[in-house]
């Protein structure tokens, strides 16, 4: 194994609820009422998938473009300044890099949002060679972003592992031929993350168990630790 691909929202930064609230407000500004829980279940997809899934609106339509732009404005002004990293986020990235792995971001976030989120996570090193929603024709669960990240760092799917928090991360990585470690901190239950190679509570949990994880033992089948929460 040579490369570790990191999702960021819900994986390193506690931002999934914030994204959902921003979408709900953006839809409301357009006169569209969408339930928070419905939007929250779609967080992890990019806007090109979320809008048709929760409101039947095509992202490329004039209405879809206006809603997407408004969501970005709301997220950056009302939520981004208050976001916090999950415990151990930056330390986990540093620990993985110190072991000689090439670590990069593979996120559905726009490039400017990704830069801000990585700063919050204390993981700006992930920006080099990273893939954002701007690098993909289609967002997760399509594999485009994973393919883009692998291409940028010159890694084969068989030499990489994805760390994410949603079933969309797992599906996108799987369709690209990449295994996944999943985190519970994004709000998804184990039943929805069962296709991951292993499941941990969050960055702090994987950091504490790094030596016994699939990162240190790529050929092993190590059972997922039980949740500490």
Please describe the topology of this protein.
Blueprint: E1 3-6, H1 16-29, H2 36-40, H3 47-55, H4 62-79, H5 89-98, E2 102-105, H6 111-121, H7 144-153, E3 160-164, H8 167-175, E4 179-183, E5 198-200, H9 203-208
Parallel strand pairs: 1-2, 1-3, 3-4, 4-5
Helix pairs in contact: 1-4
CATH class of the largest domain: Alpha Beta
**Can you tell me the CATH superfamily of the largest domain?**
HAD superfamily/HAD-like
Q: Largest sheet, if any? A: 5 strands, parallel
> Which regions contain 5 or more consecutive residues with pLDDT less than 50?
none
Can you walk through the features of this model?
- With 229 residues, the chain is of the alpha/beta class.
- It folds into two domains: 3-14 and 84-212, HAD superfamily/HAD-like (Rossmann fold, 3-Layer(aba) Sandwich), CATH 3.40.50; 16-81, DNA polymerase, domain 1 (Orthogonal Bundle).
- Helices cover 40% and strands 9% of the residues.
- It has helices spanning 16-29, 36-40, 47-55, 62-79, 89-98, 111-121, 144-153, 167-175, 203-208; strands at residues 3-6, 102-105, 160-164, 179-183, 198-200.
- Strands 2-1-3-4-5 form a five-stranded parallel beta sheet, sandwiched between helices.
- Helix 8 links the parallel strand 3 (160-164) and strand 4 (179-183).
- The two termini are 30 Å apart.
